[in-house]
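Supplementary notes (optional reading)

For those who missed the lab, this is the record we used. Protein: Alpha/beta hydrolase. Length: 92 residues.
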Amino acid sequence: MGMIASSYGTIQSVKALRDEDLRSELSSVHVPTLLLHGTEDQICPYDFALHLLEKLPNAQLLPFEESGHGVFHDEREKFNRVIVDFLKHSLI
């Protein structure tokens, strides 16, 4: 069974994505951050991930060469492996 979102929740999420600009606050994030981004993403271009990597002080970027926007779907095994590895090393 997949996740189901209410129409109200979906609309409010899209409005927040449209209206919120938090780029100026990225440098204040000091927790380990793993950026997973498909190099073939047509919705959020890969350059967005490069911008985040530059602005987030404690980030690492892992490109998914065979993925578009849905890295968790396109490269499921790799996605799961890198998430588990990141959590193991971040929680030490």
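If you only remember one thing from this example: The two ends are 33 Å apart (CA to CA).
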